Amino acid sequence: MTRLIDQEQENLWDSVQILSQINVEKAKSVFKVTIEKSLQQLGITSPIFSTIPLSVPNTDRLSQLRRIEKKMREAYAHQEKEKAYEYLVDYIEQLSQMAEDNPLAVRKKLLASLLAEHHKRKPKKYRLSSSSAPLLSKQVATAYYTTTEVAKKLGLSDQTIRRMCEKGKFPGAYKTDGGHWRIPQEIFITTSEQDERTEEVLKRIDIKNQKAGDVDEFDL
């Protein structure tokens, strides 16, 4: 599963690089999604990035940021949390340099937001009354993908996805009474809406290529 998440994250970085040459505003949007997804893998869900105007990094800085993010993910996946947070500090430092205004103030704002989020996530002790107990058993509705949708999402065959389901590669996946697999959307980094937007952009690239002839996407 970690490998699938890594691949999705790499796909997001690739999208940022391609879009930066075609549509800067779209690139900014995907760039912020990529950052948020990076932090979510560390258990950080801060909405602060949606409020900070960040410029799209050039190729060199994008590659550097991408390397730091990958090391951060790998360290966290191997339970090396202290090392992962060291990379996180470097990550924040690089991001603050991409702020469109006052990088130092942005750096402070980002760090403060992450600390506040960490404090908010600390477990609190509550005394529950008997009337509140039923709420604990209430399950949150989960959205699911079909095997065909996941196959398209990951660039694999439908048969391969079904085999992966049978081997338990997708936590929470189940088979319906009709024999069809359903896979939780929450185990993937990108949502179906984000996939649709990315696909729409790629279709536009294809249309431009068809009109312009055999050209490289960076010439568009």
UniProtKB/TrEMBL annotation:
GO terms for molecular function: DNA binding. The lineage of its organism: Bacteria, Bacillati, Bacillota, Bacilli, Bacillales. NCBIfam families: excise. SUPFAM superfamilies: Putative DNA-binding domain. InterPro entries: DNA-bd_dom_put_sf, HTH_17, SinI_DNA-bd. This is Excisionase. Pfam families: HTH_17 (PF12728). Gene3D superfamilies: 1.10.1660.10. Residues 144-186 form the Helix-turn-helix domain. Transmembrane segments: none annotated.
